[in-house]
Amino acid sequence: MQLTSTKNPLLQKIRLAAAAGRPTEDGFVIAEGPHLLEEALRGAWRIERVLTTASGRERHFNLLSRVEAEIVELSSRAFASIAATETTQEVLMLMRPPTWSWADLVPSPALVVALDGIQDPGNVGAIVRSAEAFGATGVVFLRGCARVPNAKLLRATVGSIFRLPFLEGLTVAEFVEQIRLSVLTLYALTPHAATGLLKADLRHGCALAIGSEGAGVSAELLFEANLLSIPTAGVESLNAAIACSIALFEAQRQRAGL
Prior knowledge:
alpha/beta; elongated
């Protein structure tokens, strides 16, 4: 059976959640596109339902044949009403992430990335991608950051979010308490720190805090952290995603004994 009405209750729930950048009232995160579906099949998230069209089912037959969840077919008009992109590829997933705990983020030696007040979903997504690429063990989205269900954030992670443990909504105080209990060294990137990144010992369990390019890491978190800077020439600060990537690369280099 094909869903044709744009007023279908399921489609209305999807539109509301997508517009707000939050999960549906049933707790499903919305992701769109065959590439994210391909990545999700390699990850830890549970795919609950896939929405497509007759042409989408035909075009992505091999990919959809690997999906064990329910596949719902929509008319092209109905699908267009929920698509987040103008040139849709007619594949949309309703997914449920695992319920991660702090212990999942801190295997030994831990390398946790903490995002402090970064609201641009493209930056956040790029950081998550770098976190996976350079061996981070988990990501913490402190309260005030862009949320994982944001469609732009999901696309910017290019699937890394489906494989990397994360926690959302922790306060700085809650995060610092977990750092202490786990006996991790907390570092924060800030442009004017006296200690350069290359002088830090990142081989052991640690957490790396990144703030937005404008506001930087919050004063409350700076007070608790060892401050690190990345030497630059001609510019005062780097984009948050670039700075984080450089720091994570250095941590990977040290841990590989290079």
